[in-house]
Amino acid sequence: MPVSGPILIVDNDLEDQEFISAILKEIDPAINTHCFHDGQDALVYLVTTPQQPFLILCDVKMEGMNGLELRAHINDNDFLRKKSIPFVFFSDYATQENVTKAYDLTVQGFFEKANTHDGLKAQLELAVNYWKACLHPNRYFIT
């Protein structure tokens, strides 16, 4: 299945946003990304866009609404929960407490960001290819 909707990158580090976006384009030039500085901006987009995002890649630690709070808001919103958007954490802040909290919020993955281009590319390829192949409700969503 091709990546049909955008991949959302929610990360307060502009360099990480650009780096992740560039690597996703290396993986598949057709991938479209939307970047957000915090969870609140991403949440506003999610509740107002007619698009069906393909995947959310989110940092944990951000000013304002952090990634865990964003995930909780998605879970609490019937409209967003029914969109079944895969939610994966990509964070430099991978503590046992955060990983446990993330999975309590039913995320679909948690990666500690690799600190090399090749390492991050391997992680992103794994996540994108998994969700391309996986059957999930948003695969049938018509935009």
UniProtKB/TrEMBL annotation:
Has UniProt tagged this entry with the keyword Membrane? no
One GO process term, biological-process aspect: phosphorelay signal transduction system
Could you tell me which residue ranges the Response regulatory domain spans? Answer: 6-128
Which keywords does this Swiss-Prot/TrEMBL entry list?
Phosphoprotein
Residues annotated with 4-aspartylphosphate modification: D59
SMART domains, sorted: REC (SM00448)
Q: Does the keyword Nucleotidyltransferase apply?
A: no
Protein name per the record: CheY chemotaxis protein or a CheY-like REC (Receiver) domain
Query: What is the species listed in this Swiss-Prot or TrEMBL entry?
Result: Chitinophaga rupis
